[in-house]
Amino acid sequence: MDYQYFKRDISWLSFNYRVLLEADDDTLPVGERLNFISIYSSNLEEFYKVRVADHKAVATGKIPADGPESVQEAIELVEEINQEVNRQLEERVRIFEQKLLPALRRAHVIFFQSRQEVQAPEHQAFVRTFFREEVLPYLAPVPVGRDKVVSFLRNDRLYLSVQVKPKQREDLEYFVMKLPYSKAPRFVELPRLKNTYYIMYLEDIIKANLDVIFPGYEVESAYCIKISRDADIVIDEGIANAPQLIEQVLEKVKRRKTGVICRFVYDRAMPADYLAFLMDAYHIDRRELVPGDKHLNLEDLRRLPLPSTLKQLPGKPQPMVIAELDSIFRRVEQKDLLLHYPYHSFGHFLQFLHEAATDPFTHEIMLTQYRVADNSAVINTLIAAARNGKRVTVFVELKARFDEEHNLATAQLMEASGIRILYSLPGLKVHAKVALVLRRDPSTRHKMPGYAYISTGNFNEKTATLYADCGLFTANRVLVNDLHTLFRTLRGKEETPVFHRLLVARFNLIPILRQLIYNEMNFAKNTGGGRIILKMNALQDPAMIDLLYEASEAGVQIDLIVRGICCLVPGQEYSRNIRVTRLVDTFLEHARVWYFGGGGKPKLFIGSPDWMKRNLYRRIEAVTPVLDPDLKKELTDMLTIQLADKRKACFVDSHLHNLWKSPHPKQEKNRAQYAFYDYLKEKIHSYLPHSE
Fold first, then answer.
1. Which residues, in sequence order, are CB contacts of 511 under 8 Å at separation 6+?
2. Element (H, E) at 265
């Protein structure tokens, strides 16, 4: 049968539009709604710099069309993307201009967007003084013209393009100025009047003072512009030597700043002849044009200086500290421990590392690093462990996009402190989120219980407060040994590793997943049962989608909780038993949790991979079965709560529309993230050792 699949990038745009819809939710604090505008804009920025840049490179012949995408397909896809993005940007303008700015005004926060709006003498004087003292010294207008050397537009920087006319002549002249965000804030607070906050964009303050910059000229118009450059870097996968790999990563990251233009964003109010002049001057292809709002880089809205009362979410879940958990080791020896971030405190993982660093019997600590926080407490604790005489090994993935330099810097810091660093594998990314502690009695060399930690999220204390993830602590000997085998594989000590319970991409993950799905098909055919629930960030691999289609045709009831890309098409004859739920709320749903009914004996798994080609075939990913019956029920309850959400969850239909599960979602009280937090709070006592 010829199955259908959504286009990956069009599906992603459907997800990002769902993010934008949060900004339209007037039941949320206005600061939270602005944050969703920021997230939407930031997501779109990266999408253009990576995904769209690749398609445009094929469409324009800059890279050969030797893959699955032809030149014509790339051209058509870029056009389809631009059409959908333009539609969404119109919606973003509507939400921001017609919903959020009035909401801010009602909350006594007023945006001034032009010189004419600044009426109070105090504000007029402030704007003039602030401009002369804090902005003017850092502005450098550069002339633009066909007969002039064209200035280089830096990636992601905002520029103000100005059209002026000499007072004694009729010919027009053009200039560009880079906005000095490193010297002045994007949002400038004006003096408060009568308990009202007043804010201006930096570019609007500059526009209000263009007469100071261009004496002897009449200013005709001024518009913001920016470019996005291709940010995807390709590493020579044949390099196995760490110094050469580091050198190439640094070289490629530098090139990112001067990559080819993949998007030229401009104020959509700019006249056509003005735009044509800039296109000619900067050699912009029409396919690279993306009309924007009057104010670009709306991802900066997350830094908007607002009163805290406008950002506070009513009853927002706060990280819970599990009381009396004085020793993670002793607790995990008694019973597996499953933590849910951000509902549980990430401090418990830090406690686990600290305990390993100070425990006299700890022999070795091993951990994978994909993305870590700045000034990471995780890295600092590992350094302390190394200085305490522990053997510490960290696998650092240098090819984590946009974190290459940061990962290299933290790796060098760790290496200088005595930590053994393993770098990226040729041809692979290591995306597994795992840690291992091995213990030994130094007097007898007798092995003591070891502890494995397998997670769905990065070891990053910052994102652990924003992303919804799961992490399992276990002292199960089989899983501990499997994880040790994985680290031996990363060190090059195992060429054909055997894993007994751990599922590892490129080794046993795909065969086991296929068998689990076939088992549910057999249950459906033989007993009328068959149940699968899959929670993940993205579902794209056609082979796995085909298996789900087959399972649906066999009668298996399948619920997918997929936050982002979902290339499976529901609502077809071959997918009639599949439902796709998308959940977008305060916390980013990042966990990967898989449920297979097992004919009444369910099997549950958590781990790092989505069902994308890159995760299943080109990365090292780790998935653990959850063996403890209580924890299996806990995960099942979580999935049930999320599927029952009618407040923030929607169905994705056969046209990629986000369909609310309720005709009046804002009136619904069933909100999964809040409900699951309450669920965990009710059972907090069950985590304590004395409750066993």
1. none
2. strand 261-267
- CB–CB of 421/346 below 8 Å? no
DSSP 8-state class, residue 259 = P
Burial class for 131, CB neighbours closer than 10 Å (0-12, 13-18, 19+):
buried
Asked whether the beta carbons of 590 and 467 are under 8 A apart, the reply is: yes
3-state secondary structure of 392: strand
Question: Domain limits of the chain?
Answer: 8-310, 328-501, 509-691
Phi, psi of 291 (to 5 degrees): -65, 135
With residues binned 3-state (H G I as helix, E B as strand, rest as coil), the percentages for the chain, rounded to 5, are 40, 25, 35
Q: Per the structure block, which two tokens stand in for 386?
A: 């190394």
Distance from C-alpha of 525 to C-alpha of 532, rounded to nearest angstrom? 14
Phi, psi of 484 (to 5 degrees): -65, -40
Active-site positions read 431
Which pLDDT band, with edges at 50, 70 and 90, does 272 fall under? very high
In the CATH hierarchy, which fold is given to the domain comprising 509-691?
Answer: Endonuclease; Chain A (3.30.870)
Confidence category of residue 689, pLDDT binned at 50, 70, 90: low
Class of domain 328-501: alpha beta
Q: Annotate 304-324 with b (16+ C-beta within 10 A) or e (fewer).
A: bebeeebeeeeeebeebebee
pTM: 0.92
| CATH 3.40.50.10090 matches 8-310 | no
The first and second tokens of residue 462, run together, are 């910052």
Stretch 380-387: mean pLDDT = 95
Least Cα distance to 385 among 361, 411, 358 occurs for 358
**Segment 509-553, tens digit of pLDDT:** 999 999 999 999 999 999 888 999 999 999 999 999 999 999 999
Tens digit of pLDDT for each residue in 636-679?
999 999 999 999 999 999 999 999 999 999 899 899 999 999 99
